[in-house]
Amino acid sequence: MVGNKRKTTGKLQFRGRFGKLKSHGRKMIYVKTPGGNTVVQFRKIKPGKAKCASCGAVLKGTARARPFEMQNMPLTMKRPTRPYGGYFCSKCTRDTLVKKTRANLIK
Ligand SMILES: [Zn+2]
User: Fold this and answer.
1) I need a labelling partner for 73 at 20 to 30 A (CA). Which of 4, 22, 81, 85 fits?
2) Do 54 and 34 fall within a single domain?
3) Is the pLDDT of residue 18 over 70?
């Protein structure tokens, strides 16, 4: 991770205030500058991927962004527009709908 061609004395250079940035909402990454120094930067962590409530599979077509980005995002970009979209995966949605339909037919 840390480059070999460092002109500094071996210590990593911290840009900005370290203590404030050392939180769980950010991750530390090593960036190599054009001058050859390796610098630590703190980037904001994206939230985890949405998962199916039934089988736990990763949901496709769902947005993965920070909360303030999700607020301004249109609803069609956040989840698929179908019943149980963004909650069940397509396979579990199909199974659920078939089960519900058959249950209503028996009554
Ligand atoms: Zn599922």
Assistant:
1) 22
2) no
3) no
